[in-house]
Design a protein that fits this description.
2 copies of one chain form a homodimer.
Chain A: H1 3-19, E1 35-41, E2 50-56, E3 64-74, H2 76-83, E4 99-107, E5 119-123, E6 132-136, E7 140-142, H3 149-169, E8 177-180, H4 186-195, E9 202-207, H5 212-215, E10 221-224, H6 229-236, E11 241-246, H7 252-259, E12 260-268, H8 284-291, H9 297-303, E13 306-309, H10 312-318, H11 322-337, E14 345-349, H12 354-362, E15 369-373
Keywords (chains A, B): Oxidoreductase
Biased composition (Acidic residues) (chains A, B): 391-401
Pfam families (chains A, B): ADH_N (PF08240), ADH_zinc_N_2 (PF13602)
């Protein structure tokens, strides 16, 4: 799937190897050497707030790595950022994006452990969706030779979060069971693959019916995302499950806690219902926040249950736990090298196609991860393209009807 | 400490070996073969509700083991039971007690895996504080030859709960830190010993100052239980701790959560403040319940925190998880055999001394576990014994003043 991106990436890599050094970077960019293309969010709102513009290219500060970006991950969280539906949103205009892969192009002072030309993946605290990114070295990781750039961009956020939730927050062991929503998405597939590394783990997953055929090998029991998953799980396992991973929030917190076996762990790691879910209006953020049932610790005591929250970005950028994450990345790369996990890339999109890509993830049309391929040229608009008028998160009416269109969304490979 | 009890136990064991078989059990009891001594709680309330009486001796049903009891564990929970301060209290009169050790005296039908004469420890759903106990075989575990009966009675509840909290609910690993209240009690000492089996774990503990000298080797940083432990921990570790084990409840839940590092786990496993704590009246149960701050899962998400409740008795007797507990007991016995853990027995008490024993635990006078030694004769009352008039949990006035007496409490070894 990601073949085109890789070949391009390798060409560029050779160029760097030939030219070497920080001073030659100008040969890599067409036009003004101090500018770069980037996706810019002009203000919080719908898709029309996004555009690709030229921006001043950043230079690495002390301890930072400058990366020539090849591919960027697109996450559900990016839709929430676009809408401003996050805690303490930063000021706009901003360049979105929290993860990318590419080639080290320059190093700030006192930046040990990397060399120019290294193939890397990285976390960035915004600013990932650009041709060049600078980020502190603690957030940069070398990638295996046979990992493509789109794979690497699909790897960091989803696999690190899935691993830490399953093995550090919860304690996944042989014979346990896990419920994951959006099992066909990038995170769902990371969870399913990591579960398969432990013997005899049962994975319950929800996904739109059209994805079931594609993901049925990775998920033990698949349910339509529109059915009552509590009843479906209980039909198969009346006792419930050991681990619930919830990216929906709202009333799903109570449902998830109710599904736990004794000693089971519920983990809230997102709130995608705030963007697209069953609620119909833009007021869903405030609604979801208050709809979450607060938990009485004495009830947890009576029932022997665990409730947790997990935010990888807060862990990295607010709570300074990059050293823990580094250990996890090393373990994950070992699993990748042992061919036990492999990121599933849904589709590659040019930066200029970011709106279509966002629409696709909003409509839950993806199977695996959506990737922005920085070197890809945009596909010409199709006759029925309605991106400029259909803006996820701004409509007052139900967006569910749009899902009929998802098979017609551009699917570029 | 437990020497006297052990010697007696061994004598009895030899008798069983000589006489063998179920039919000879009558030689083991003095007087009426179908009666036994037991502690009976006539109604919920103060110490005056407890007495030792003769009761009909139970016989094992199918799947049950009949145990000639040598020693019983006394836990803080037993004080809460006495007061009726538990969820869905059973009907009185009842025989309290949830754990004991002794010798298998008879087996119900279909009770495989044990033989008459086996030295065992067991969980019982009430009825432990008696000369004879019958309990399903799933709650009975053989003990090592060199584990004394008082040690065994001090082992099951505290070490199993501590192990499951540290290693299954939380995920204690090298270099982490743990806060435990009542570090000098049976549970606190079990936690401290299990922490010492993992390299480089820092244990913060609260305990009354007079215990500090005795327990200072097992706890890295000891605080007076009356100081503000939040401030004391933060002075030493501004970032907080990885695991908080809270047996106090009430406002300590918020304090504990506040002390957690990112990815840290708070576990509520008791609510001893309901019995003795800072609150002054019998209304403290209801108060504590409502004083517990309910937790918003979205806050856990923002802060990357985990909150859990743990009740071993619910796990065993309501939630049917004895097979999980069996695995833990096996691991703990390996640790015991490897001399890595050893229950700390505070003192041995005759059944007739149960009131004094309860007063001692109520006043937090104990260092390690209080044990009822079934074969021990009561020590004559001391001149200043005030048990009949000082009844823990019934007073309207503050009980803290009584702690001055704790050095004078009978301390029988």
């Amino acid at each position: 799937m990601a073949k085109e991106g890789v070949e391009k990436a390798e060409e560029t890599e050779h160029m760097i190897e030939k030219d070497g050094g920080k001073d030659q970077e100008s040969v890599l960019t067409a036009g003004d050497t101090k500018e770069m293309r980037a996706v810019v969010l002009a203000g919080f709102g719908g898709l029309n707030k996004l555009r690709v513009t030229k921006k001043l290219m950043p230079e690495p500060l002390e301890g930072e790595v400058k990366i020539r970006v090849k591919a960027c991950g697109l996450n559900f969280l990016d839709l929430m950022v676009r809408q401003g539906n996050i805690d303490n949103p930063p000021k706009t205009p901003l360049v979105p994006g929290f993860e990318c892969s590419g080639i080290v192009e320059a190093l700030g002072e006192n930046t040990k452990g990397f060399e120019i030309g290294d193939r890397v993946m990285a976390f960035v605290n915004y600013n990932a969706w650009a041709e060049v990114v600078c980020t502190p070295l603690e957030f940069v990781y070398k990638i295996p030779d046979d990992m493509t750039f789109p794979e690497a961009a699909a790897f960091s956020m989803n696999f690190v979060a899935a691993y830490m939730m399953l093995f550090e927050v919860a304690n996944l062991r042989e014979g346990m069971s896990v419920l994951v929503h959006s099992a066909g998405g990038g995170m769902g597939q990371a969870v399913a693959q990591l579960c398969s590394t432990v013997p005899n783990v049962t994975v319950f997953g929800t996904a739109s019916p059209f994805k079931h055929e594609a993901i049925k090998d990775s998920v033990t029991h698949l349910f339509d995302r529109n059915v009552d998953y509590v009843q479906e799980v209980k039909k198969i396992s009346p006792e419930g499950v050991d681990i619930v991973l919830d990216c929906l929030c709202g009333e799903n917190t109570g449902k998830g806690l109710g599904l736990l076996k004794p000693l089971g762990t519920y983990i809230l790691y997102g709130s995608s219902n705030m963007v697209t879910g069953e609620t119909k209006s833009f007021f869903s953020l405030a609604k979801s926040w208050w709809q979450v049932e607060k938990v009485n610790p004495i009830k947890l005591y009576d029932e022997n249950k665990v409730i947790a929250g997990f935010s990888l970005l807060n862990l990295l950028f607010k709570q300074g736990r990059s050293s823990l994450v580094k250990i996890v990345v090393d373990k994950l790369i070992s699993l990748y090298n042992a061919r036990k996990i492999k990121p599933l890339v849904d589709s590659l999109w040019a930066l200029e196609e970011v709106k279509e890509a966002m629409q696709r993830i909003h409509d839950r049309g993806n199977i695996g991860k959506l990737i922005l391929d920085v070197e890809k040229s945009p596909t010409p608009l199709m006759a029925n393209d309605s991106t400029e008028t259909s803006e996820a998160g701004e409509e007052e009416e139900d967006h569910e009807g749009d899902t009929d269109n998802k098979e017609r969304m551009p699917f570029i490979q």
